[in-house]
Amino acid sequence: MVKAINLKPFKDFLRSEQIGGVILIFCVIISLIIANSNLGEAFENFLSTQIGYSNPSIQLEYSISLWINDGLMAIFFLLVGLEIKREIIEGELSSPKKAAMPIFAAIGGMLFPAGIYALFNSGSPTVHGWGIPMATDIAFALGVISLLGKRVPSSLKIFLAALAIADDLGAILVIAIFYTNELHWMQLGYSAGILALLIAMNWFGVKRLFFYIIPGVFLWYFVHHSGIHATIAGVLLALTIPTNPEKDESPLEKLEHIIIWPVNFLIMPIFALANTNIEFESKMIDGLGSPLGLGIIFGLALGKPIGVTLFSWLSVKLGFSKLPNRANWKHIFGLGLLAGIGFTMSIFIALLSFSNPEYKVEAKFAILVASILSGLAGYLFLNALNNKEKKKIEEA
Questions:
Q1: If you average pLDDT over each of 142-146, 217-221, 360-364, which comes out highest?
Q2: What residues pair up with 60 in beta bridges, in sequence order?
Q3: By C-alpha distance, which of 385, 393, 284 is closest to 336?
Q4: What are residue 34's phi and psi, to 5 degrees?
Q5: Is residue 357 part of a domain?
Q6: Closest CA to 237 of 81, 7, 12
Q7: What are the Cα distances from residue 243, in Å, to 101, 246, 249?
Q8: What CA–CA distance (Å, rounded) separates 388 from 129?
Q9: What mean pLDDT is predicted for residues 183-192?
Q10: How far is Cα 131 from Cα 114, in angstroms, rounded to an integer?
Q11: Alpha carbon 122 to its chain's center
């Protein structure tokens, strides 16, 4: 008689958020292998393939890579925005003091890396890249912390999400002000009008998601054509979706439940595959010791944890906020390490910063190295912290 296989542990693992982080890291590895194999050129050509529709009035024909980064990732940012709003209304961020702390942390996590980069590159041709180490890659940072599961307080995941999205919004503003050649004010005006309509529908109690999603698509289109990164449209839409602190499922929670599976198991893996295809070159190693490479590495791996921790401490000491539930300052430092995972937004800013192909190659490799160092350091630090706390409890 064949013994029945117990699938419960596997099903429990599949249902957990940890599998999303595992898939994400697996896709990063696969993408790097492809980029450095005979398939690298074919994969790059595939990502550059133009798809969509365009005419003199409508432009929706873009490369597959752009559809992933500006289209699919807008849905990811929509999910993050929904989670943040839900936590602000009824969860971990419902207290003004708790909500203020991630904003302070994000500000510190942007100023210190930019300052460190500027110190290394002062007076050099690469000084314009000061915005590169400012950004936290929310997808990868949340993917790494998800691997820790219950070994970190759940409030820390919410805090990291809030910090990362404030950080990314700050980076988008930096791009719009310092790295955008031209803003299209008419498109911005259309975006503002649609956003006002969405806010009005929320105000007047419109509950059906259909009436938010359709304007949300147009919001994405106009934000994209305004010169501002299109992913901000997902966040803006999320903030207008109705919710409530009651037990009944709100429109926000309904939409969250609809998109959480495709985001975790489809959008984020596709995003990782498309954006980690970095072809290794010998120049990259030499570039790590250049002012550009050192500014990026020290900015992300050192500036982020220092800035996040210091500004979080200041916000608490000044009475503006308080620590997340069940968290201590060591947890905050660990999150600061994870915030050093710059990756996609950092690479995006690097491409905007330099016209010199050599600088772009050096910057991309330095970002990859710094992000790996930050991810590993953050994971190992928080895991060791959990083991230490568990040991103390057992000995008590």
A1: 217-221
A2: 53
A3: 385
A4: -60, -45
A5: yes
A6: 81
A7: 23, 9, 8
A8: 40
A9: 91
A10: 6
A11: 28
Q: What is the pLDDT of residue 104?
A: 94
- Which residues, including other chains, have CB under 8 Å from residue 384's CB and lie 6 or more apart? none
DSSP state of 127: G
- DSSP-derived secondary structure letter, 130: G
pLDDT tens digits along 328-351: 999 999 999 999 998 878 887 888
**Alpha carbon distance 345, 133 (integer Å):** 9
| CATH code for position 106 | 1.20.1530.10
Question: Where in the sequence is the domain holding 56, given as residue range(s)?
Answer: 17-388
The count of domains in the chain is 1
Is residue 107 within 8 A of residue 339, CB to CB? The reply is no
Asked whether the beta carbons of 81 and 235 are under 8 A apart, the reply is yes
Q: Which two tokens stand for residue 296?
A: 């990026």
Could you list the beta-strand ranges (E) of 141-249. Answer: none
Asked if the model's pLDDT at residue 263 lies above 60, the reply is yes
Mean pLDDT, rounded, for 19-24: 74
Confidence of residue 76 (pLDDT cuts 50, 70, 90): confident
Residue 111 burial (C-beta neighbours within 10 Å; 0-12, 13-18, 19+): middle
Residue, of 299 and 352, whose pLDDT is higher: 299
Residue whose pair of structure tokens reads 């710094």 in the numeric block: 370
- pLDDT band of 93, cuts 50, 70, 90: low
Residue 343, domain member (yes or no): yes
Residue 363 falls inside a structural domain: yes
Alpha carbon distances (Å) from 69 to 219, 233, 268: 16, 13, 10
Q: How far apart are CA 216 and CA 233, in angstroms?
A: 8
Predicted local confidence at residue 92, as pLDDT: 62
Q: 3 pLDDT exceeds 60?
A: no
Q: Rounded to the nearest 5°, which phi and psi values hold at 308?
A: -60, -45
**Helix, strand or coil, per DSSP, at residue 60:** strand
Residue 54: helix, strand or coil by DSSP?
strand
Residue 336: closest CA among 175, 172, 167:
167
> Do the Cβ atoms of 361 and 289 come closer than 8 Å?
no
Residue 4 forms part of a structural domain: no
Structure tokens at 334: 């660990």
Q: What does the DSSP assignment read for 270-319?
A: HHHHHH--PPP-HHHHHHTTSHHHHHHHHIIIIIHHHHHHHHHHHHHHTT
Q: With bands split at pLDDT 50, 70 and 90, how would you rate the model's confidence at 12?
A: very low
Mean pLDDT in the chain?
86
